[in-house]
Amino acid sequence: MNAIKETHFNFTGQTNFYKGKVRDVYTIGNKYLVMVVSDRISAFDVVLPEPIPFKGQVLNQIAAKFLKATADIVPNWVVSVPDPSVTIGRICEPFKVEMVIRGYLAGHAAREYSAGKREICGVSLPDGLKENDKLPEPIITPTTKAAVGHDEDISKENILKQGIVSVEDYEQLEKFTKALFARGTEIAAKQGLILVDTKYEFGKAGGKIYLIDEIHTPDSSRYFYSEGYVERQAKDEPQKQLSKEFVRRWLIENNFQGKDGQVIPVMTPEIVQSISERYIELYEQITGESFIKPEGENVLNRVESAIKKALAAL
User: Considering the entire predicted model, what is its pTM?
Assistant: First the structure.
């Protein structure tokens, strides 16, 4: 399988390299970031052993499309997208929080709620909700951005109290988050999808706030199919969804949640292929476009060549 598991490029003017969970990031002249979205996949803050073909391309192309579609709401970091798996953008100083916004009680929030919690990140939730119910209104449940290990839930009150983000900046981040979620919800609805929850990351450059990283991808978001949603809720059936939750559920069923002593289950070729197909399905569903698999040449050679050409043009 011609998947991008890792890269070891060396570009003219390169000043740093950072390997994240799923991205390889090259700093050029302390001015630009070259982000290669690999085919690595993580769940429960653990990178799984097998790469998923085309996953990086799916994430990068969806993010590029949505960043372009929301540029009127908030400026973003992108300068160019020279390859299906690569984005080049301006360097921003990231805020040390991720802005998570939820329109439905799903995933982590549902697990917390079923454990008896009625307050998440300082936001109160009413009694009587069941998993995947629509919330009275979207709620923002921020997390701290951990350099290593797990991100932690945090309230707005504690963010401001600890001085992690200034009051003025945080108020702006909240406005951007709500507006982006509303736009993402509109676009998803046109494609027969419900944007359930998502996260946004922001940074600053020259005193200006930019939207950074990826948005509205299956790694950062959860989607339900609109068709049949009401009927499934009425029957207490699981929702048909497109997100990374199906990977988490497969791991949970195989006794893995990233805890000490647990062993990652074997990722057979069939499992890898099925995950790849789910990512491609989401791409086509959310964009309304056919997914095009690059053919022929070695993927690493293609990516390296595209980046070099793009950097030469900057």
Answer: 0.89
